[in-house]
Amino acid sequence: MFNREMLTLGRQRSVIRELFSYGKQRKAEIGEENVFDFSIGAPAAPTPSSAQEELVRLLREVPSETLHTYTQAAGLFSAREAVAKSLSTQSGVPMSANLVYMTCGASASLAIVMTAILEKGDEVLVPCPYFPEYEVFISRAGGKLVPVATNSAFHLDLDAIERAITPKTRAMLINSPNNPTGAVYSAEELRALGQLLRKKSKEGPIFLLSDEPYRELTYGAPAASPLSFYDDTVVLYSFSKSVTLAGERIGYLAVSPRANGAETLFDAVCGAGRSLGYICAPALFQYAVPAFLKSSTDVEFYRTNRDLLYGALTDMGYACCPAEGAFYLFVKAPGGDAVRFSEYAKAHELLLVPSDSFGTKGYVRISYCVPKSVIEKSLPTFREIFSASF
Ligand code: PLP
């Protein structure tokens, strides 16, 4: 009567969303200020006023029949051109507007690219730990997610990647700055990855899919672009985090003009978008893309939170990953059992996501994209549960 796979997926709640809903309910019961919700990656930094002003300007100045109608499936040419220009500047690779496809955020970019490139049984390598929805997008497209170990700092382990490559490997999916570890891959790391994938692509290209919703959120050097190091690259991007527009659903997918059969791949992307029923990305937000590209979020908001949380937890004895980018702190669960520790934290109104949901055991993820006051007020509880849990 129904598609069994979809029914299972619909009934299976994501651990993150479950905790987030629980947090909302608890806040209603015992007061907003008594629940410390670090579960979800919904950014709290204000949307830049320049981005909001552009939306208001568009609403005032562009006739509604132009502003709110369908755009081309791939998107407004002005938006695609602005994206191509900005990516060219970042990567040094001359990108083409004709190979940019505007999407409803990185999730849509992921679903589209997997549908475009995978045949049944194709494998996609994904470094562990990883964003749980990857599994959904890959398996729906008929592929298989192959988890690949990372090194002790959660950076790329090239030997492990080489061992994982088989004749069925169609793509490798990376995410830097990383959710959940905060790792940011260096240019050297991406160069070495490019060399390995080139060496292993003899029987057909292994696409490098670069999921970059946190691109601008780094606390050291800017994130390096894999476009510069590997031709068969597809960039998946979102304005959800970089411009605090998570609810508006706007992002893009960009194929490198240097990719094998780039135009053919782009045709498959158009086919995938069509088959998934996307029609076009939200038109109003597409019109504002050139302004969004110039109005990035306040990284200092997240740096302040990171420094506060990292410093305080380290002093208490927690073992925290360095958090080079994004807005997540990945912390070893005291006692070693992440599910047990996060349950214990939950009983103390502190909501942390156990790393089991990301394909790795023994850690919890703390989303610090919250108002600073939430972190400040939560610290006594972090201290209390650290010592009590041994
Ligand atoms: N990729 C990663 C690594 C993410 O963390 C997220 C959201 O949290 C997404 C993709 C999806 O982002 P969106 O669909 O809001 O653009």
Structural account:
By secondary structure, this protein is of the alpha/beta class. It folds into 2 domains: 4-47 and 297-386, Alpha-Beta Complex (Aspartate Aminotransferase, domain 1), CATH 3.90.1150; 50-294, Aspartate Aminotransferase, domain 2 (3-Layer(aba) Sandwich), CATH 3.40.640. It contains 15 helices and 12 strands. It has helices at 4-11, 15-30, 49-61, 64-67, 77-91, 105-117, 133-140, 158-164, 187-200, 262-275, 283-287, 289-292, 299-316, 338-347, 372-388, and strands spanning 36-37, 100-103, 123-127, 144-148, 169-174, 207-211, 233-238, 251-255, 328-332, 350-351, 353-354, 363-367. Strands 2-8-7-6-5-3-4 form a 7-stranded mixed beta sheet, sandwiched between helices. A 3-stranded antiparallel beta sheet has the order 9-12-11. Helix 6 (105-117) runs parallel beside helix 7 and helix 6 packs across helix 10 (262-275). The longest helix has 18 residues, at 299-316. The N and C termini lie far apart (50 Å). The model has no long low-confidence stretch (mean pLDDT 95). Pyridoxal-5'-phosphate (PLP) is lined by residues 41, 105-107, 131, 175, 179, 211, 213, 238, 240, 246, 251. Pyridoxal-5'-phosphate binds at residues 41, 105-107, 131, 175, 179, 211, 213, 238, 240, 246, 251.
